[in-house]
Every structure is written in structure tokens, then in C-alpha cells.
């Protein structure tokens, strides 16, 4: 398994929307590396023919009927919003794409 | 060659097609017409006040959990079956992780490597100078996911993202069931690529409509297309593809393919490299502009959705759904062609004008098949084209045609008056009866009044009467015309003619 | 009735139902206790005295009018702050949710209300339940009532400490890798992680969705069973909720019988790395069970040695996705919205400011493990190991009725001792984690004090999925034998605060 560099941490920070400080980049690259080394032991397990398990209890086909239920009131929906305008959630400008 | 303000250069289509072969692929998103959302009981009604159809689940509030809408799964399986797909015996939902303010959880619940339906096809017909040609568009997958909220960009001049000071989010649409239908690459269409793309989307729309799973209104966004396209020289390997988003009408599908062929050909002609990117199509210009580059591929970090258990449709369930499928549009067209005794060309023009279902519905309530076709593909299609709308978007219903036709048969209306009735309906003046009453549209059937008008016309043109009496019966047309004019068209021409000949003692 | 705060929940409920004492008096006694000692313990993040007293009054009114009540009606409870409660602050121990009041009740809260249990307030926890010490709470650590310089376990240290400090006789926890059991172990209390899907997760702020499970905490096995029964059962709002009858845990706790029961000692969970006093008390407990008529057998679960690795890949992966929604757009903290910064920048600044170091660590670890190119080696491989661990459990349960181990390798460690040593902290969960990976149920109950430090030692019982009643059958028997031996519950030996 690979080790994790400072640049990797910076990339992860961007992917995860964390504005990491310089000292955090140092600190976390060290710590994540240690953690990854210790969890990497799982690669020793020969598991080629073992099915991966995503759900602990095997169940399938859990559905609800297509029935309309009451929604929140708009006041409840917007109550916790950091900013609202015109009955909508107000969010900062979006720069990355048209 | 044309150059847009964005610096994109286009060469004429025919020239492009003389050097390159296009490969297309189409991803279509369809909002299902369920009562409630994909994971919660909020209503899916279109056009409600902002943020009134939201709950902890579709707002992605901490602690909330999704539960799958059974009808959405059924609809997806039905779509898959209609598109000749295999239905997965076992599949899971997956989380697609990316941050965007219109997505309340900052991940979209979708399906990744285990779509519910896969490996199907849809045959589409394109008119060519050599007659109709059938193309088989192969379907890669049909999967379930959820729609996002709606962003409004505020503060800038254009209402677009660029230059906006901030954005506003309405989450009413968030969590509405969304089906994504992905084609395999379509090769070998040559210069018919724009038409094939359009025909595919149209056929897909008709299939959705026949299934009744969605209102498939492209203008309201309940059906949206992304077009992938690459060019290569004959014999060469495939080129780099672009993805054009925001293609939101049938006409745009055709134009987007055509425009992208013209653009990429120009790039390649100049020794350039087509960039793998997302482009945004603009209805107004018919051209696209460059969006986000995909060279740095998004890392969506898909993994199986732990909050939802797998979907494993039983064979019985699938077969029950298959048995309940309606007649598919292509089958229906073949049947109607036979029943109405029309040729390929007539069928194609009915289908292409969007009149097929309307004519069928009109015939179904008792109107003669010739009359039904005449109204829909004649006067009404003319108006629709004039207004630039789909035929079905007109306010005229099959029932209106039924009423008008009945009045024509009884002699109360003639064709000319009937057209005025439809004009009134289109102008929202009321029902057929109301328009006839308010506009005073009734055939003059009082013999006395008609005879008086005939006498007047004969007196004004004594020479015509002589001609008729001398055997030149075709001269009667002039008198009939004068009478029709005098009665402002509210007479039955055949009846006027008969009365005139009777008056003159002439028999045909 | 005297000394209301030291009474068991079942005793209090009975006294309230027979009008020996009012629910208001019981609630007031606990509110007074919180006022008196919570400065030192810091078990609670938020107490709503008025709401608690109103709930208690409603119970007294029902008692007066003769309405039939549930077996815990009027008994006060501390609710882990990770569960949504309408109109009450719900922070999950994080700054990023400071001030957020949910517009809805979690299913657990709905069931507590239906059972007429009086909710005193919200208990402290490691931020987003990431931790084994409650030191990762953004609102300050909770202190172990047995020794205020030591950790109360985590992530549910607040709930466990509230029980041990007699601030509440009942509490709710959530257990993703041991967050109910390890705090129970180090505070001398009882905690049960039910079978996955046994108690609805709806309204629990998710850490790792495929591992999380809310459960009951109390000071006795019977009280724990009563609370378990009150909150368990099918919930159509949680797609992973089990649609089947809940095993009769109350009857099992009352029967408390291990005669003829086959008990498997997991070879891999014990020995090296376990504190001497922990191993000693554990061995004594096994002897007691044998003396009560159980057959004790050693079993091996060879894949367990990979459990920690698999867990610390699966948990961060799911958490990185579950915690994405805390982006400052719809609720909670927003930082950097100066009209100039774009939305991506504001999200990044908000998350940087709103999350603590352990949360950021795990988000990045999970983001890494799910990245293209690493998925198969990390997340994918971890899910395969999960299958192997489940197979080990299945094989073991073919030989025995329940499995046992020490709950944690050590007694409560000192506050600050492992705070910036993630690996050392993670090792504390080594015995509790396999249970979550397999989705089965498990209990921790106190079996004495370690001779070397005088701190409580926990005993873990594990049962097959949907056989949670066996936990109570065995746990009840062991508790009864130990109480007979000591003449009181272990918690009575906790020092005065």
C-alpha cells in the first residue's frame, strides 16, 4: 500500500471541502500515514473469492407506498437556514461552472 | 465558416460530414410522475410555492433516512421492459459524492455498477430521401436516482451563474424520482446523426408517454438530455468526446448534434485536439459554450448506499409488470397504418407532427378517420406551426372535433364556419356551442332566405342564368359564390346549388 | 421513598404507578442532582428542566386518572445528543451544529414519549460519535464519576457518566464500534448494543450507517431490558429496520438463567494487551457462570485480528459521506460568507471551522479510502473482511449460545492520555468492533473493580442477530450472582461526588 503525502492530504482537503491550515497539512499527513499503515494489514487477507458485505443484515425490497404525506411548513424548513431570501435558502455565489 | 463570440469556429455541416464520422451517445433524465418523492412522502406537484414540499428527508436534515418509493421501482422496471432491457435480479443503490448547494445531502443517491435495467434497445425510424430507415439504438442501462433542488442566480445582469452575486435554492424538486437512460455509443449514422438523435429522444418520449410514467415535458424539465459526441476520420479510432448538457427540446437535440459536429470538425481540420469537456447548449443561439473541463475527472467516490437495502425484483413481479405493459408506439403505428389504410409517408407525417395519438383519440370517440386526420394535420397543425408549439399543446381536444364534425354532418356548420369555431377555441372564447352562439356561426338553412338571395344574384347577372339554361351548368358556380358571399359564408354551398338549379328548372 | 436518585428505574416506575412518589418529585430529584454534580461530571450538554417537569406532570395526571402506563412511565432519562429531538438543541457534540433545533423527533424519542419516559436533556459525546473518551466533544470532556481525572469512555461518555453519577437512572446511547458498551464498561454501568436494525436509526445523526445502532443504558440488566423493549421494534422510516417481533428481553432479564447454556470464550479477545486486573475479573466471571450451570468453551475467530483495520476503513468512508451535508447551506454554522467568497470556499471554511481534529482526520481517511484507485484495496477489501468476521461469528454460534470477552482491554484511562494518539485510542475498541461489523447484539455489564486501580471492569456478552434476549438471560444471571456476592450493585461503591 502507498504512503500518504502532504500533497495527498491537500487534495483530500479539497475533495472533502476542508480548508486545512499549513500545520494541519503536516500533522494530518503524518497521522493518516500511521493510521493507513496500521489498517493496511487487512490486505494480508486472501479474500479474492469472498463477497463484500455492505449491509450487516440481509434484507431486500423494502419499499413505501406512493402516498403523499404532510411536508414541513415553510417556516420550519427555513428556520435553521443561515440566510434566506424570497422564501428560499440563500447561498454564496457559485463560481465553478456555468 | 462561422466564429462565435466564444471563439468557437464552425464549418458547414456537409463539409464536416465529407471528412468525419460522428459517434453519438445520449443520456436522458426523466422525472417520474409519482405522487410522492423518491424517498419520502412529499408531493411532486410542479409549480408550488418554494420550499413548501420539503421534509427532513428531502432536505437532508441530520438523522433523516430514505425509504424507496415502490411505484418508482415499478416504473423503472416497466421502462426497462419497454426498452427491451434485462432486469437485474439483485441491485443496490450507491452514493455519488460531490458538493453542490442544490443537493441537500451533498451526495446523490443513484445507482453505480448495478443498474436496475441493462442491455436493451430502441428502434427508431428516420425519414431519408430513400424512404424511412430504421436504426437500432442500444440501451446501456436504465437506473434510478433523485433530482436536485432548483437554483436561481441573483444579482448579476444575466440571471446566469456568471456574474451572479449569490444564488437562491428551492428544494421542492429535490428528491423527485429521476430515471437515467443511457445509450451505448451509436455508430454508423453518418450525416443522419442529428436526425437519429432527435428520433431516438422522440421515440423515448413516446414510450414514456405510452407507459404513463412521466409527463415528459422537456420545456418544464421533466425530460432532459445530454448528448455525447465525437468525430473520427473513416478508418481511424474513436475521437475524444464532449458532453453537451442543457439540451431541452426535440429541436435542440438535432441542433446540438449538428452544431457539435460542425465545431469539432473545425477543431480537427485545424489540427487541434477536441477537449473532453462538458458544454452547455443555448436554445437562443443553437450553439454550445464550454463548461467544466473533464480532464481532471471528478472523483465521485461511489459506494453502496448503506441506508437502503438491495432491490431484488422477483421473476413473478417482473412478469406481472411485463404483462401490464401497454402497446408500444412502434407497434401502435404499424397497427394504425393498417387500420387507417395509409402509406408510410402519411404515417410518418402523422407521427412527426405529433398528431398520431390525437387522431387516434379523435377516431376513438366516433369521428370519421379521414375527417380526424384532415383537421389535425391540416388547419390545426398549421396553427401549431405558426405558434411554434406542439400540436398537443393547442387548446383543441378530440371532443371539440367530434362536436364540430357532428354539426357539419347535420348541416349546421360548413368547413369554413368550422374553421372559425376552432379559431375561437384557440382564442379561449369558450366551448363549441358558446363560440357558435357568440360569433353567430350558423349555416343559413331557411329556404326562403336562400331563394331570395338566389333571385337577387340571378337578377344581378342575367347572362349567367341564360348560360345555365342553355346547358352550361358549370356556370352555376358564379351564382352560388355570389349567394355565399351575400350570406357571409353561412350557407351550405351544396344546398344553394340545388335550390338554384331547381329554381331554373334545370337538372344535372 | 428516600434517596430517589439511587433507585433503579423499575423501582421508581412502580413507586410512581402506585402513587408512592410522584413523577414530578422523581424528576425534580434528578434535576437537583444534575445541578449539584454536573459541574464536575459534565454529563449533560443541555438540560430542559421545564420540559422535563411538564412531561412528569403529564405522567402524574395519567396516574391520577388511572390510564394504564408502561413499565418505565415517569422515569427520567438522558438522551445522547446525537438523536434528534424536536425543538431541542441537537449538536452531536459538534460546533457545526451549534444552535440547531430539529423540526422533528427521532423514532427513539417518539417511542420514549409514547412510553411516558421523562427526557431530562441531551448528554455529552465525542463529536459525531467519533471517539472512545468523550474528549472529542466540542463542548468539553465528560469526567468519569469513579475518578474525575479519567475518561468516561466514548463516544457515549455523557450517557454512561449520567448513570454512574446518579443524574439519571436511564440513558440512550448509540453504538457504532462500542460507544455504548465501552462507556458502560469503564463506568460500572450496563449498556446494550441491539442487533443492527433492532432499534430504528431514524433521527440518529449518522456516523457510519451500516454500523450505527441506538440502544439502552442503565444501572441494572432489568432496567436496560425495560428500556430496550420501549425503544425497539420495526420502523417503516428506517429501511434497515427489522420487520419482525422483538425478542422478549424483559422476560429474559427476569429469568436470568444460564443453566445448560453454552458460553464461548473468544480466544482472540483477551490475553496480551489486556490489563491484568481486567483479565483477572474476567476469569472470575467465567467461573461464576460455570458455577451457575453454564458450559464454558473456548472458540476461535481468526479473522477478528483484522476487525480493527476493516472498521477503521469502513467507518471513515461512510462517515465522510454522511458528514458531507454539514456544509453551512441549510442549517448550522456558516463561516466566510462575506459576499465575495464563492460557495465552495464558504463550505470549506465552514467545515474547517466547525469540525474538530478527529472528525477531520476521519473524513480525510474515508475520502481517501473511497477514492478511485484506492477503493478496491481499502473499502472493498474491508467489506470482504467484514464477510469473514461474520462467518467467524456464524461458525462460533453453531457451537455456543453466546460469546463472551472483556468489553475493553483496560479500565478508564486518564483524560488527555491518548488524545493525540489515534491508534492508541482506536485500540480501545478492539473487543467491541467485531460485533458492529457483523451486525449482532452485545451487552456490557460490570463484573468488579480492577485490583490495581480500583476502577470498574466490563464483561461483554455477544449473541446471534435477533437473539438479543440471550444477552439478558446470561447478563441477568451474572449480575444476580455478583450482587449476591457483594450484597449490592457495583455502582454503590462509586465514590461520593
Key words describing this protein structure:
heterotrimer, A: 98 residues, alpha+beta, two-stranded antiparallel ribbon, flat, B: 508 residues, Arc Repressor Mutant, subunit A, 3 domains, elongated
Give a written overview of the molecule:
The complex is a heterotrimer of chains A (98), B (508) and C (497). By secondary structure, chain A is α+β, with helices and mostly antiparallel strands. Chain A has three helices and three strands. Chain A has helices spanning 6-15, 22-39, 74-78, and strands at 63-64, 84-85, 88-92. The longest helix of chain A is centred in the N-terminal third of the chain and has 18 residues, at 22-39. The model of chain A has no long low-confidence stretch (mean pLDDT 92). The radius of gyration of chain B is 29 Å and the shape is elongated. The mean pLDDT of chain B is 91. Chain C is α/β, with parallel strands linked by helices and 497 residues long. In chain C, strands 1-3-2-4-6-5-10-11-9-7-8 form an eleven-stranded mixed beta sheet, sandwiched between helices. In chain C, strand 7, helix 9 and strand 8 (295-299) form a beta-alpha-beta unit. Chains in contact: A-B, A-C, B-C. Chains A and C meet through helix 1, helix 2 and strand 3 of A and helix 10, helix 11, helix 12, helix 13 and helix 14 of C. Strand 3 of chain A pairs antiparallel with strand 11 of chain B, so a sheet runs across the interface.
Amino acid at each position: 500500500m502507498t504512503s500518504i503525502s502532504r500533497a495527498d492530504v491537500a487534495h483530500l482537503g479539497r475533495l472533502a471541502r476542508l480548508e486545512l491550515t499549513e500545520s494541519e497539512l503536516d500533522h494530518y499527513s503524518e497521522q493518516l500515514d500511521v493510521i493507513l499503515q496500521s489498517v493496511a494489514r487487512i490486505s494480508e487477507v486472501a479474500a479474492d473469492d469472498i463477497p463484500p458485505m455492505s449491509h450487516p443484515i440481509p434484507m431486500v425490497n423494502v419499499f413505501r407506498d406512493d402516498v403523499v404525506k404532510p411536508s414541513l411548513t415553510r417556516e420550519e424548513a427555513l428556520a435553521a437556514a443561515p440566510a434566506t431570501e424570497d422564501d428560499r435558502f440563500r447561498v454564496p455565489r457559485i463560481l465553478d461552472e456555468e | 465558416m462561422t466564429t462565435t463570440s466564444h471563439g468557437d469556429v464552425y464549418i458547414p455541416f456537409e463539409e464536416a460530414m465529407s471528412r468525419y464520422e460522428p459517434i453519438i451517445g445520449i443520456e436522458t433524465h426523466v422525472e417520474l410522475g409519482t405522487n410522492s418523492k423518491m424517498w419520502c412522502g412529499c408531493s411532486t406537484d410542479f409549480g408550488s410555492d418554494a420550499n413548501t414540499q420539503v421534509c427532513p428527508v428531502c432536505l437532508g436534515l441530520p438523522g433523516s433516512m430514505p425509504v424507496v418509493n415502490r411505484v418508482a421501482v415499478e416504473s423503472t422496471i416497466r421502462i426497462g421492459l419497454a426498452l427491451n432491457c434485462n432486469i437485474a435480479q439483485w441491485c443496490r443503490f450507491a452514493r455519488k459524492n460531490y458538493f453542490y448547494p442544490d443537493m441537500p445531502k451533498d451526495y446523490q443517491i443513484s445507482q453505480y455498477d448495478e443498474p436496475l435495467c441493462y442491455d436493451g434497445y430502441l428502434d427508431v425510424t428516420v425519414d431519408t430521401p430513400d424512404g424511412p430507415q430504421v436504426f437500432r439504438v442500444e440501451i446501456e442501462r436504465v437506473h434510478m436516482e433523485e433530482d436536485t433542488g432548483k437554483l436561481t442566480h441573483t444579482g448579476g445582469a444575466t440571471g446566469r451563474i456568471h456574474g451572479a452575486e449569490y444564488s437562491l435554492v428551492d428544494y421542492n424538486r429535490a428528491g423527485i424520482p429521476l430515471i437515467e437512460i443511457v445509450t451505448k455509443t451509436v455508430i454508423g449514422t453518418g450525416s443522419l446523426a442529428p436526425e437519429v438523435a432527435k428520433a431516438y429522444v422522440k421515440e423515448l418520449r413516446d414510450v414514456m408517454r405510452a407507459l404513463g410514467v412521466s409527463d415528459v415535458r422537456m420545456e418544464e424539465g421533466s425530460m432532459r438530455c445530454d448528448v455525447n459526441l465525437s468525430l473520427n476520420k473513416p478508418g481511424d479510432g474513436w475521437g475524444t468526446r464532449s458532453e453537451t448538457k442543457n439540451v431541452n427540446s426535440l429541436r435542440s437535440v438535432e441542433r446540438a448534434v449538428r452544431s457539435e459536429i460542425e465545431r469539432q470538425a473545425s477543431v480537427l481540420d485545424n489540427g487541434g485536439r477536441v477537449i473532453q469537456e462538458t458544454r452547455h447548449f443555448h436554445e437562443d443561439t443553437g450553439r454550445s459554450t464550454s463548461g467544466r473541463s473533464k480532464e481532471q475527472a471528478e472523483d465521485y467516490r461511489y459506494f453502496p448506499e448503506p441506508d437502503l437495502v438491495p432491490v431484488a425484483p422477483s421473476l413473478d413481479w417482473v412478469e406481472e409488470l411485463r404483462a401490464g405493459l401497454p402497446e408500444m408506439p412502434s407497434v401502435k403505428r404499424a397497427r394504425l397504418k393498417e387500420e387507417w389504410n395509409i402509406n408510410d409517408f402519411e404515417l410518418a407525417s402523422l407521427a412527426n407532427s405529433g398528431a398520431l395519438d390525437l387522431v387516434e383519440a379523435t377516431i376513438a370517440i366516433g369521428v370519421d378517420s379521414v375527417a380526424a386526420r384532415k383537421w389535425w394535420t391540416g388547419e390545426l397543425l398549421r396553427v401549431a406551426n405558426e405558434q411554434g408549439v406542439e400540436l398537443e399543446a393547442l387548446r383543441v381536444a378530440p371532443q371539440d372535433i367530434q362536436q364540430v364534425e357532428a354539426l357539419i354532418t347535420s348541416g349546421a356548420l360548413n368547413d369554413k364556419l368550422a374553421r372559425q369555431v376552432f379559431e375561437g377555441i384557440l382564442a379561449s372564447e369558450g366551448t363549441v356551442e358558446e363560440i357558435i352562439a357568440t360569433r353567430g356561426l350558423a349555416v343559413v338553412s331557411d329556404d326562403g332566405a336562400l331563394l331570395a338571395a338566389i333571385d337577387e344574384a340571378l337578377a344581378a347577372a342575367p347572362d349567367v342564368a341564360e348560360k345555365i339554361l342553355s346547358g352550361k351548368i358549370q356556370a352555376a358556380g358564379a351564382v352560388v359564390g355570389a349567394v355565399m358571399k351575400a350570406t357571409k359564408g353561412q350557407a351550405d354551398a351544396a344546398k344553394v346549388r340545388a335550390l338554384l338549379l331547381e329554381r331554373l328548372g334545370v337538372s344535372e | 421513598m428516600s434517596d430517589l436518585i439511587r433507585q433503579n428505574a423499575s423501582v421508581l416506575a412502580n413507586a410512581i404507578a402506585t402513587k408512592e412518589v410522584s413523577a414530578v418529585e422523581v424528576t425534580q430529584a434528578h434535576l437537583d442532582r444534575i445541578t449539584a454534580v454536573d459541574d464536575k461530571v459534565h454529563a449533560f450538554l443541555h438540560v430542559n428542566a421545564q420540559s422535563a417537569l411538564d412531561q412528569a406532570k403529564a405522567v402524574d395526571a395519567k396516574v391520577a386518572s388511572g390510564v394504564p402506563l408502561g413499565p418505565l412511565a415517569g422515569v427520567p432519562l438522558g438522551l445522547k445528543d446525537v438523536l434528534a429531538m424536536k425543538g431541542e438543541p441537537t449538536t452531536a457534540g459538534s460546533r457545526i451544529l451549534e444552535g440547531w433545533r430539529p423540526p422533528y423527533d427521532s423514532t427513539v424519542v417518539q417511542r420514549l414519549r409514547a412510553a411516558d419516559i421523562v427526557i431530562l436533556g441531551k448528554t455529552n459525546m465525542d463529536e459525531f460519535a467519533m471517539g472512545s473518551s468523550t474528549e472529542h466533544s466540542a463542548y468539553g470532556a465528560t469526567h468519569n464519576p469513579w475518578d474525575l481525572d479519567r475518561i468516561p469512555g466514548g463516544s457515549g461518555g455523557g450517557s454512561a457518566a449520567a448513570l454512574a453519577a446518579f443524574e439519571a437512572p436511564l440513558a440512550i446511547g448509540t453504538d457504532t464500534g462500542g460507544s455504548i458498551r465501552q462507556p458502560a464498561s469503564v463506568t460500572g454501568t450496563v449498556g446494550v448494543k441491539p442487533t443492527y436494525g433492532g432499534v430504528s436509526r431514524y433521527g440518529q445523526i449518522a456516523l457510519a450507517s451500516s454500523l450505527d445502532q441506538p440502544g439502552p443504558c442503565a444501572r441494572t440488566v432489568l432496567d436496560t431490558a425495560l428500556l430496550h423493549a420501549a425503544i425497539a421494534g420495526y420502523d417503516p422510516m428506517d429501511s434497515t429496520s427489522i420487520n419482525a417481533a422483538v425478542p422478549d428481553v424483559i422476560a429474559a432479564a427476569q429469568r436470568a438463567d444460564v443453566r445448560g447454556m453454552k458460553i464461548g470464550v473468544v480466544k482472540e479477545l483477551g490475553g496480551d494487551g489486556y490489563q491484568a486486573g481486567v483479565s483477572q475479573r474476567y476469569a472470575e466471571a467465567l467461573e461464576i457462570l460455570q458455577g451457575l450451570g453454564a458450559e464454558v468453551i473456548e472458540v476461535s475467530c481468526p479473522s477478528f485480528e483484522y476487525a480493527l483495520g476493516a472498521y477503521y476503513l469502513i467507518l471513515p468512508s461512510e462517515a465522510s459521506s454522511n458528514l458531507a451535508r454539514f456544509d453551512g447551506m441549510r442549517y448550522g454554522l456558516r463561516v466566510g460568507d462575506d459576499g465575495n467568497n464563492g460557495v465552495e470556499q464558504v463550505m470549506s471554511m465552514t467545515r474547517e471551522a466547525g469540525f474538530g481534529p478527529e472528525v477531520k482526520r476521519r473524513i480525510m481517511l474515508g475520502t481517501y479510502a473511497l477514492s478511485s484507485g484506492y477503493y478496491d484495496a481499502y473499502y472493498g477489501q474491508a467489506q470482504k473482511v467484514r464477510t469473514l468476521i461474520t462467518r467467524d461469528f456464524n461458525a462460533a454460534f453453531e457451537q455456543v449460545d453466546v460469546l463472551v470477552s472483556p468489553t475493553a482491554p483496560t479500565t478508564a484511562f486518564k483524560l488527555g492520555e491518548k488524545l493525540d494518539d489515534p491508534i492508541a485510542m482506536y485500540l480501545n475498541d478492539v473487543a467491541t468492533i467485531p460485533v458492529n461489523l457483523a451486525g449482532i447484539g452485545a451487552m456490557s455489564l460490570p463484573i468488579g473493580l480492577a485490583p490495581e486501580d480500583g476502577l470498574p471492569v466490563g464483561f461483554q456478552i455477544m449473541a446471534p442477530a435477533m437473539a438479543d434476549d440471550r444477552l439478558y438471560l446470561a447478563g441477568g444471571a451474572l449480575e444476580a450472582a455478583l450482587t449476591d456476592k457483594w450484597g449490592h450493585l457495583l455502582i454503590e461503591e462509586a465514590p461520593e461526588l
